[in-house]
Write a structure and sequence with these properties.
The protein is an all-alpha fold and 91 residues long. The protein contains 4 helices and no strands.
């Protein structure tokens, strides 16, 4: 996946800022698809972000896109595709 879409930018940002390069290197390609679940509560065999990483994600979205995530929006941010849609709809 070497494209320059918003989805790829978000995935790259998550991997880099949360220091997930080693974890991601061991995952099968389908676990890195834009519609694959990011959180361990949904898919413990994927990237498997935890609640602390969810908070980091909120900070990343604020820093990179100047978007404030409300508590009620957190449930929407379960995949890279959903995060990209949220970013697009928040601008």
């Amino acid at each position: 996946m070497a494209d320059n879409t918003l989805e790829q930018q978000i995935l790259d940002m998550i991997i880099e800022k949360m220091d997930l390069k080693e974890i991601v290197a061991e995952l099968p390609e389908e676990k890195l698809a834009y519609d694959a679940a990011l959180f361990e509560s949904i898919d413990p065999d994927g990237i498997a972000l935890d609640s602390i990483a969810a908070l980091e994600l909120v900070v990343l979205l604020k820093e990179h896109f100047d978007i404030t995530v409300q508590d009620e929006d957190m449930a929407k941010l379960t995949t890279v595709a959903n995060i990209a849609d949220f970013v697009r709809n928040s601008k």
